[in-house]
Structure formats: C-alpha cells, structure tokens
Design brief:
166 residues, alpha+beta, 6 helices, 4 strands, globular
C-alpha cells in the first residue's frame, strides 16, 4: 500500500479567475439542465437532510457531501453525495468521497441517462450481487461504472485513492 495523506481534500474554492469561473458556471449549468432529474432528487434529499434534520455537510470540489447515520456506503445523486457519518476507517471515508465524486462527473456527462447507465447497474451490483462478489472474491470496483467512478474521481479531484480501493 502506498503512503497517502488521507486528510487531504479536494479544493473547496479553486483560484479565482475567469477561466475557473467559466468552468464552474458551465459545470453547474449542465448539471441543472442536462442532469436536472438526478440533481432535483438529490437536491430535495439534501435540503431535507441538512435543513430539516440538521445533518452535517461539506463542499467537496463542486459537490456537496451530506453525512448520515446509516449503515450504507455512499450514494451520489448528481451534485449531492450522501455518505456514512464517522466511519471507523479514515481510508474508507477518503476513498468513498473520491469515488462518489466520480459519479458526480458521470452525471454531468450522462444527464438523464445516468440512471440507466450507472445508478441501476450500481444498485444491482451493490445490493443483489454482494453475496456473489464476496463468495468469488470480486472487488466492488470491478463493475465498469464503479471503476469509471474511481478513475474520474481521482482525475477531477487530483487525489489518489488508497490501493485497497482500486
């Protein structure tokens, strides 16, 4: 395993200049038009969790991560990521933030097709195939959309996942 600083986080605010402002505008514009269905559901859940239930959240790159007291891993709905709060392994939290951020960028590319191409296969792989994966020692990240999320999460955060997550 490589020695990685797991406390590092994606930059919250990139350097202020026209190019970065334009990139940010385009990102949110596409997310809220092409990716509207996914982001609308994620935004409603985000507001319920943070404003009504008072759950902790943070900005991560262009996304928002909400930490929940559940036994699930992570769930990405466009700009909105939902993760287990206070996981005992810091590496898990580090890797999951990067991975779920990769799903955010998949939504940017796929828009309404995100459900068909990523969300449904991912949910099936996670919830239905878990026993099979464990029995045959197959990594969760073996599925195309999960490996893709890892690659894009690392690319767009500039962070490297620990070896155990690859």
């Amino acid at each position: 395993m490589t020695n990685i600083d797991i406390s590092k986080k994606a930059p919250d605010k990139p350097e202020k200049n026209f190019k970065n402002d334009l990139k940010k505008f385009c990102f949110y514009f596409v997310q809220w038009t092409w990716g509207l269905p996914v982001n609308l559901i994620g935004g409603i859940i985000f507001l319920i969790c943070t404003k009504i239930l008072g759950r902790r959240y943070q900005r991560f790159g262009y996304a928002f991560i909400t930490y929940l007291p559940w036994n699930q891993g992570g769930l990405s709905l466009g700009l909105f990521i939902f993760m287990k709060d206070q996981h005992p392994k810091k590496e898990w939290t580090y890797n999951t933030r990067i991975h779920e951020y990769g799903h955010t960028w998949q939504c940017l590319l796929l828009g309404p097709l995100y459900y068909l191409v990523v969300a449904i296969p991912s949910a099936f792989w996670c919830n239905v195939m878990g026993g099979w994966r464990k029995k045959h020692n197959v990594s969760y990240y073996k599925l195309y959309c999960e490996a893709w999320a890892n690659a894009w999460g690392q690319k767009f955060t500039g962070m490297q996942m620990t070896d155990t997550a690859k």
